[in-house]
Input
Amino acid sequence: MLVVVGMRVVVGVLMVGCAGRGIHPGILSGARQAATVPGVVPRTLPGSGVISHTGRMYGNDVIDPNEPLNAAEQAAAEGTDDGVASLSPAGRREQAATDLAAFDALIAADQRIEPRDAMPEKYRQTLIRQIAQHAHSEIIGMQPEGNWITRAPSLRRKAILIAKVQDEAGHGLYLYSAAETLGIDRQELLERLHDGKQRYSSIFNYPTLTWADNGAIGWLVDGAAIMNQVPLCRCSYGPYARAMIRVCKEESFHQRQGFEILWTLMRGTESQQAMAQDAANRWWWPALAMFGPPDTGDAAAGPTSGSHTEQSMAWGIKRFANDELRQKFVDMTVPQAQKLGLTLPDPDLRWNEERGHWDFGQVDWDEFWRVLRGDGPCNAERIAHRRRAHDDGAWVREAANAHAAKAQTRARESAA
Amino acid sequence: MSEGSTRISDGSPTPTTPAERSWPLWEVFVRGKRGLSHVHVGSLHAPDAEMALRNGRDVYTRRQEGVSLWVVRADDITASSPDEKDSFFDPAADKIYRHPTFYDVPDDVEYL
Output
């Protein structure tokens, strides 16, 4: 279903300069160049030799002119010549083994898997689950902030917030689109969300109590999301990676606008500063929990950890361990908090000269699992709201169907 | 279509409310700017071409990513199959003389 119908808001003036910059300098590395404007093919003349391997876009790998020109030269060089044609039934099993070998070879070469390539069923299922959960998180994530659209403190803030919430809907749609390439209908995914069979990020089960929460969400939640998502731009599954490139570009606007909200509050009155501090207090730990349970140790025991992470890493779906990303996030965020003048609610937070990283305390994993399993402040409300929005939109979908059917009938009649 | 044809339930009769699943899948292509080809960016569901175009605009060009948009019914796209990749594309393999690097020429000749 298309949630963005009729929501288009013109805020171009406010967003000038947001699209191309502001993505985290430290973590983007290779993916940075990939995040160019969709549809824009890097303009480089053949043979000029300046194309880098990171200049990928939507899976169209630009080929280094110094590499063998095509399969012909490659095959000639390797002495391979497989003229595989139609196969006997006995050869099918061999074909399956060949398919798997081809998949493994692509993964080993850090190439992308594309929708109609042969892939292990578990790879497909893992991706469906992960992409769907991600898509669900985007559209459920519209709610905590959507809650503040009517109460935004200025027209500027309101226009920005609408644009941001619309972006979240868009991100959900990019991701449902990617999931569908794996052979599942997005309607089915929505039903699984509505029925509680698939989850969304547990961060969205926390309420937005004050205006400052919109700042904390943009700064911390979107900041953590970017940290998680940037490596996904290099995910082995092409459509997912391409969707993530778009998402990451847009998230950097979200994070900056969140920071700006807090920056403004922290330079305001005492009660505005207190409001910002309160928001930071409430969102800091849930944001750290967004990276998932620890990869090792007692708290690692959980439905999504251990061998699952290992397998995802081997398949190139996941690129970094949870703890690694969490540390990066803390290291990135602490100086920002200092700049804002906010105190992060962790007595164990201190610079570790030896490690060259910030030490920090333990996330309350019991709470994490509790909220994930449904016992958070807003779980029931979020799903109820989502179902209601979907049901309330039924007449729009029916009307669109009726209109399409009528137009088709008319076209047929006028042709006859 | 390469990114759509593996889906299982779109367009086919389903036991649930027909209105929920009957919208066809459209593949969306965006021309980033004048002088460039349209590039595939993703897909969406819509009841007709006009809605597909409008929603394609909202989903894929919120930040001036395009100056022109195509939407194509996924069902109307015929794609080569990865299974026959070798037999389909290999005929090009024995014609390496089509590439400029095939030819031996003296190193000291300019503009060649």
